[in-house]
User: Which sequence fits this backbone?
């Protein structure tokens, strides 16, 4: 594709390569993010969307269009002819001296964005315009790079990407928080001749592929019909779910660690301007926090050890809000954070959980009481993702499925264990929460293009 | 991640680099795709899922496990220790001489796959096992590479990937074939406080991003509640929808052509074994068909010219099944194919359609009768994808939206035209149909992991 204009991204790239020439003539198209003048000289903060940083356009009194340009509004789209002026001594290493412009799209008086800081709540309400605000400009760029890093990591390791289905008949975890999918309200099972719902996880559907292709992953939208109006819950979010054959819990944790380090490193390397923005404006120190992950070797602690540590801490006077700590409990975020922040002081895996608090498909350990599951805990958050080795023993899995009452509907899943099955493992990582963690943004509504939450589906 | 075993993919890679050594000891884990012996020597066709091609394992009478190995069943999973034997004179350039094996997962008697050719209908019914069959082994590998090629192409061009929402309140094209999404059948609008449905297109949601980031794309699942039980219709399928700002219909067609050539070339280069399989077993000549696309410059013909050509062909005796040809009609597949196969003899764009047969958001041409839309037609299929320049004029778009009655619900979409709008364009390409085209598979149910069609949602 050849378009006549050059992008600001091309200009920055050219500059980085030392190839940007003083006086070079350029033709740009983009948006005004600021315009001020003093009657003799004017400056436009110009952004064409191809780069995070603005480019400064300078127009001077000798320009016959001076008055016209000076009246261009914030957010208008313009075409610009001009010449590069290298300004190595300045904060901005180059600017564009404008020779000619034309207004492509004006801005009406009711435009809701102004050149000032708006609250996130306000911006959420105009989700279709907020990509133009600095924070969201940075955020969606990181979102894009992070998504690509995920594919790149797995493809480089010869993993197979599988599009597991969105419409399904099973609710995977048995959590029962599925949205129903119907064509005609009067005949809910009519279209598919079955109860259909939106997937809560691709795991069960990707396992058959791992048992054919060895290393596989899904990366797609998942859904929860939960009435949880918190900053960490959305009704629709993207999940990454790798599934690997001939791999046990140790292999799985190795993969989780390697994966998380790879994608964080990719973002730090490929989004330096955006990450500096988050580090300055959103969460001071978030870059160091990410570097700490890269430089840590992830510790492995059993759930049983974890409970002992927490009990001891309590005996020594540490106050937990949720103070009833016992073997068999589901850890609260404060407990997870104590372990990763105060004890290990870095990322860690908590492993081998009581089978009662984990899913039916997890491999029963030899002790008969715990399952080969692992939660990855990180400072500042607690659990960021979880995985497990899957039960590959037909009889043991059948027993668990009968207890759960899902043996009938998932007969095919069980069958995998008698048709050349093997040990296999996998994990699930919520993409949007990961993005919150990396950027420091604290509300899931602020990391998604058009968030869907209970009572809210404006666009 | 370090797993003790080596993959067959690694062995083939090592061979290609000239680094595979005769006698090299290996440890493999994978599945048996064939096992035969004559009492003195036996051969296992072995596949661990990491490569399309099998590796031959050889076990000889002097192996103390000989009888045990000879009884390993088709589809069982095994672990193998052995040594590489280079056999450059043979069809298979190396084999593995087995020293030791263990059975990891046996296969019960009711295993439905056999080492023979099964019908596609039969395999569809066991969707969770068919990835193990040759055709689907090849197919899902191509699907994976094709999906990655799409991201790679756009990322290399600095496009922004946007996760447009799956649950939405608008049906984009106004086609009205949306699945409804509800939490509680008794209170259909309860969860979101609105009528919610599954997206039929991400286009309207990605346009605001193009007007902030210039070059953008979506790639995600879309849905149609259509009762079309044909080989080309599925209720759930993936779509690629790029949207580019400061770009007209010509730019859009340039992008479509470059994109299609890039991804086809990527598959031919990265899936040679799989494409040879399709070329031999599924559609003879499919590789040449793909190469023809790569070597063609895509012609551009207006709809009005197209109609004239078809009328003339009819006058000269060509028989169309659908014989009522007039300006204003929607072309049928046979007409599209006549143009691309008989007239242009290659890929072509048909452009500038009557506004009445195209969507409300397409840019009205100066003639006041046609819109700046383009359909890409290819031999053997007809239309493979379509795009358009979008109407950027506020008043004209408002008029069209009032006609359609969707002005209220899409007010925000209209507003984009008065808030620094600009010319912009985009296209939509159905991923699954593209995959059919590239592999020669003729039923959409055979290119998806778990197809969803009317009355059918088994897994």
Assistant:
């Amino acid at each position: 594709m050849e378009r006549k204009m050059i992008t600001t991204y091309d200009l920055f790239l050219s500059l980085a390569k030392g190839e940007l020439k003083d006086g070079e003539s350029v033709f740009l198209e983009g948006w005004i993010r600021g315009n001020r003048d003093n009657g003799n000289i004017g400056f436009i903060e110009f952004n064409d969307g191809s780069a995070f940083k603005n480019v400064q356009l300078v127009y001077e009194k000798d320009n016959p269009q001076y008055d016209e340009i000076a009246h261009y509004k914030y957010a208008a789209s313009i075409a610009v002819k001009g010449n590069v002026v290298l300004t190595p001594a300045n904060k901005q290493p180059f600017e564009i001296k404008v020779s000619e412009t034309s207004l492509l799209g004006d801005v009406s008086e009711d435009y809701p964005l102004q050149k000032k800081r708006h609250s996130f709540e306000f911006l959420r309400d105009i989700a279709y315009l907020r990509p133009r605000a600095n924070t969201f400009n940075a955020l969606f760029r990181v979102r894009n790079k992070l998504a690509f890093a995920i594919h790149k990591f797995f493809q480089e390791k010869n993993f197979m990407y599988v599009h597991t289905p969105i419409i399904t008949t099973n609710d995977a975890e048995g959590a029962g928080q599925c949205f129903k999918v119907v064509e005609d309200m009067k005949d809910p099972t009519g279209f598919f001749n079955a109860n259909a719902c939106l997937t809560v996880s691709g795991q069960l559907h990707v396992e058959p592929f791992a048992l054919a292709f060895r290393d596989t992953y899904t990366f797609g939208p998942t859904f929860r019909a939960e009435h949880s109006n918190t900053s960490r819950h959305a009704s629709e979010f993207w999940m990454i779910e790798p599934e690997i054959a001939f791999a046990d819990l140790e292999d799985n944790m190795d993969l989780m660690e390697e994966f998380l380090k790879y994608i964080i490193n990719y973002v730090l390397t490929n989004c330096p301007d955006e990450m500096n923005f988050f580090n300055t404006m959103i969460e001071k120190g978030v870059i160091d926090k990410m570097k700490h992950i890269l430089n840590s070797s992830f510790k492995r602690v059993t759930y049983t050890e974890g409970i002992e540590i927490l009990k001891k801490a309590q005996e020594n006077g540490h106050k937990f809000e949720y103070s009833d700590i016992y073997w068999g409990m589901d850890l609260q975020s404060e407990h997870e954070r104590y372990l990763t922040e105060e004890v290990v002081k870095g990322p860690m895996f908590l492993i081998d959980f009581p089978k009662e608090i984990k899913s039916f498909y997890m491999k029963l350990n030899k002790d008969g009481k715990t399952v080969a599951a692992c939660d990855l805990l990180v400072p500042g958050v607690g659990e960021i993702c979880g995985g497990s080795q899957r039960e590959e023993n037909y009889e043991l899995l059948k027993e668990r499925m009968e207890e759960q009452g899902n043996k009938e509907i998932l007969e095919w899943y069980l069958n995998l264990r008698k048709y050349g099955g093997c040990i296999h493992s996998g994990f699930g990582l919520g993409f949007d929460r990961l993005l919150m963690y990396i950027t420091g943004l604290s509300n899931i509504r602020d990391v998604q293009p058009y968030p869907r939450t209970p009572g809210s589906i404006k666009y």
Remarks:
- Residues 134-156 of chain B form the longest helix (23 residues).
